[in-house]
Amino acid sequence: MSSKNIVDKISVPYAEALLDLAKDSNLLSEAEQDLLFISTTLSNSKDLQLFLANPLINILVKKKVVNVLFKDNINDFILNFLLVLVDRRRIPLLITIINKYLELTYRLNAIKIVELYTSIEFSQTQQQTLVEKIKNITDSKNVKLVMTIDSSLIGGFIIKIGSKVIDASLAGKLRKISFYLNAS
Question: One Pfam annotation, family name (predicted)?
Fold first, then answer.
């Protein structure tokens, strides 16, 4: 069994429990906003990711850092959820748990999740145009665009819609050229 499957098997029950808690409290949209804020904070700080993933750092120290960083910015039940993850030594799985939670909420709301990997930030107009084209391609009414900046793409972008991948990146084109040159 691959490590990704193991991580998924561990993460899904936490995401489901958080979704149930958010539904029971009528805080689905607030929970989504808080988790997106946390995800952005983690994505912007490799040091914070490494700190939380380090098993040698004391749990109390991690709890203090989580409290200081997020106490005034997120709902109490989300903060308590983070502290439970720290206690159970599951905090390194936080990004995966957040992604699973978002998948579950989007599925609950019939929203198509589209991952966009790009070398530069897209403007709001570009994002909206892309979302409209994806709606036409997939016959979906609701599309959620999740954008990730990946400088290794050099230029262009990669779109993932479920299991389908559209690679319009410069790095992808260079890989294809390299493959054809090495094959002959």
Answer: OSCP
